[in-house]
Design brief:
The complex is a heterodimer of chains A (408) and B (229). Chain A is α+β, with helices and mostly antiparallel strands and 408 residues long. Chain A has helices at residues 2-15, 19-59, 84-90, 124-130, 155-161, 195-200, 206-213, 232-242, 251-254, 256-294, 296-305, 309-341, 352-357, 370-396, 400-405, and strands spanning 62-66, 97-109, 114-122, 137-140, 150-154, 168-174, 180-191, 201-205, 221-225, 246-250, 346-347, 363-364. Chain A has 15 helices and 12 strands. In chain A, helix 2 (19-59) packs across helix 12 (309-341), helix 2 (19-59) runs antiparallel to helix 14 and helix 10 packs parallel to helix 14 (370-396). The relative contact order of chain A is 0.18. Classes of the chains: A alpha+beta (408), B alpha/beta (229).
């Protein structure tokens, strides 16, 4: 501790003996950290935007099905509408909105083409609270109620079917008695989402869908959204306890692709951190080795005056600690400033088509990731100090006589 | 009866190996007594600096033994040698070798900081020793703002402040003009006379040798003469 008190002012002043070198190192560290923190925030925004967009379309944050439905989503794996205990649980304040759906595999037939589709019977009022599909209707209208027997198709499938608003299509699916049900539906609306969603889903009123396949009030799923994503796991556990005979899943279990993408985004940050840090480490070691080499004579003199090898190590390590710590602070300020300037969103609508493929929103909203800032900054700081210990150790190993022979 | 501060017994130092071996010191026996104001002279390559390095615990002999204040150096590790230098030896170098980022006073206090002396005591002793070397009022200046003579006085003050058993000076006047050099020698001589500080000075400078109380001449790594004046 007394070493720190003795060497701290000396280490700080030593930093500024060669301002140009210090500034270069500061730039290397701060820009490196800035890139890590900013890209962390940007990639998180990207990931969140994509995740939110996908979850908001249809998946929600969680779903409840009959056991076995997820493996075989057929008419034989449906469930009754939620009973009182489950409705109470779903109406709890932790749950933002919920809706029941009937979803069955089927085909849609036009005069020109037959294509596979998932027929989704929805409760339009409830859907408006948790799904973005109603807002994505660009032609015609969304459904008016559970009895509405119009159909809302995606733009792309409508194009492929060569059909359109006001035309009729035939939906076919297996009915309760095992026969094939078919019924013509008016196309009342067309929605604009990503092509996969446009191609795979056709929406109609839930009651209309049930009538279409001969069901009473059975449903395929309950979808719900929550305002606090951190609360998802306990909510899932709560609902599972309330409805032990049903299959309650979070979005991570429903969309493995989305969950994997989420994990991959986080891994990418650490890969990026590794790459940037490797470059930074080369810069830090190089400049610190130069600093040590230039001051070889001085280290010999300090050893002659009575500084122990360990104290020389502490002195040089302190210099690195300050240098990298200062760089880290600048990097944090730069990253925070950059993110602050982008809080209104980064408009990527110019790349809309590519973003749609990547399932990301057109406007990204980078946010301060405080734990990420702290953890990533600490990693850079600690690793930087560890890397700089090599030159420090080299300085501490110098023999005073050999060091003082070194030209000043 | 004064006691020896430094004792060298059969000290030899060789550099290199095989046919390229250089004998810097050969079987040197020497006692530096408390209160000595000794000069160490000799032609280049005679072994002056090597002997000063041995006496200053900066280097270890290839054979023989060096004792400082009765403490044999051969058994000490690097950290113990550093501690011994810190407590018992003051150094004055030819090139002053002050720490450029510290003021004159801070340079002096630095040695005391290494010794763990508290801040108030450090300040008091640094100001006293600055006064002793005639540099009152200049303690706040960085070395770059001092003349060569002033820097060397600061170096002397730094060597003295820890109250060492011995002060070793290697060519302390080599970078100074004759006037400044005379002032520095007078200062060291006075400190020796008034405070009884032991000095061993490696030098070619006749003006320094003239003021010494003992003159040791080295030739080819051996003591060729050792004269008390």
């Amino acid at each position: 501790m007394s070493n720190l008190k003795t060497f701290t002012p000396l280490a700080w002043r030593n930093l500024w003996r060669n301002p140009r070198r210090t500034v270069i190192t500061l730039i290397v560290v701060s820009v490196g950290l800035w890139s890590i923190l900013f890209f962390n925030s940007f990639i998180n925004a990207w990931g969140e935007s994509g995740k939110e967009a996908v979850l908001k379309l249809l998946i929600g944050q969680g779903q409840i099905h009959a056991v076995g439905y997820m493996d075989d989503p057929s008419i034989d794996r449906l469930m009754s509408p939620p009973g009182e205990p489950l409705v109470s649980a779903l109406n709890a304040p932790e749950i933002e909105a919920w809706a029941t759906r009937l979803q069955l595999p089927g085909v849609v037939v036009s005069e020109y083409k037959t294509l596979p589709v998932n027929v989704v019977g929805v409760d339009p009022e409830a859907e408006r609270l948790l799904s973005s599909i109603p807002d994505k209707v660009v032609e015609g209208r969304y459904l008016k109620g559970v009895e509405d027997d119009g159909v809302v198709l995606g733009l792309h499938i409508a194009e492929r079917l060569k059909t359109g608003l006001g035309r009729r299509v035939i939906l076919m699916s297996q009915s309760t008695d095992g026969s094939l049900s078919e019924q013509s539906f008016d196309v009342v609306g067309l929605f604009d989402a990503d092509k996969a969603t446009e191609d795979f889903y056709a929406f109609t009123g839930r009651r209309a869908a049930q009538n279409f396949v001969g069901l009473n009030d059975e449903i395929a799923q309950i979808v719900f959204t929550i305002p606090e994503v951190d609360m998802l796991d306990p909510i899932i556990a709560d609902l599972a306890a309330t409805a032990p005979d049903l299959d309650v899943r979070s979005w991570k279990q429903i969309s493995l692709f989305l969950a994997t993408t989420d994990t991959f985004m986080q891994s990418f940050i650490y890969i990026w951190l590794g790459v940037v840090f490797s470059l930074m480490a080369i810069g830090i070691v190089n400049t610190q080795l130069m600093a040590v080499f230039e001051r070889t004579h001085e280290f010999g003199q300090l050893r002659a005056l009575g500084m122990k090898p360990r104290q020389v190590l502490v002195l040089v390590a302190l210099e690195s600690t300050f240098l990298i710590g200062f760089g880290v602070l600048i990097g944090i300020v730069l990253a925070a400033g950059t993110i602050w300037t982008l809080t209104d969103g980064v408009d990527l609508s110019a790349f809309a088509e590519g973003l749609e493929m990547a399932q990301a929103g057109q406007i990204l909203y980078p946010e301060y990731d405080i734990p990420g800032f702290v953890v990533l900054s600490l990693i850079i700081w600690v690793l930087g100090i560890l890397v700089a210990l090599w030159p420090a150790r080299r300085a501490s190993k110098l023999s005073p006589v050999e060091a003082m022979r070194h030209a000043t | 009866m004064t006691k020896p501060i430094v004792t060298c017994r059969g000290v030899s130092k060789t550099f290199g190996s095989g046919e390229l071996v250089v004998h810097a010191l050969r079987d040197v026996d020497l006692n530096i007594m408390q209160g000595d104001f000794a000069t160490l002279a000799g032609p280049s390559g005679s072994g002056k600096t090597t002997l000063l390095n041995m006496i200053g615990a900066l280097d270890k002999p290839s054979s023989g033994e060096v004792e400082i204040d009765g403490q044999p150096l051969s058994g000490l590790n690097k950290a113990e040698l550093s501690e011994l230098r810190l407590q018992k030896i003051g150094f004055v170098f030819q090139a002053y070798n002050l720490i450029p980022v510290l003021s004159a006073q801070e340079n002096i206090e630095f040695v005391l900081q290494l010794q763990g002396v508290d801040a108030a005591e450090r300040r008091k002793r640094a100001l006293e020793v600055l006064a002793e070397v005639g540099l009152e009022g200049t303690g706040h200046r960085r070395p770059s703002a001092l003349s060569g003579g002033q820097q060397q006085r600061v170096a002397v003050a730094r060597a003295l402040v820890s109250k060492p058993s011995i002060v070793l000076a290697d060519e302390p006047t080599a970078n100074l003009d004759s006037g400044t050099s005379a002032e520095l020698v007078e200062l060291m001589s006075q400190l020796n006379r008034d405070l009884g500080i032991t000095f061993v000075i490696g030098t070619h400078d006749p003006s320094v040798i003239e003021r010494s109380s003992r003159h040791i001449e080295l030739l080819d790594g051996r003591i060729s003469s050792d004269t008390r004046i």
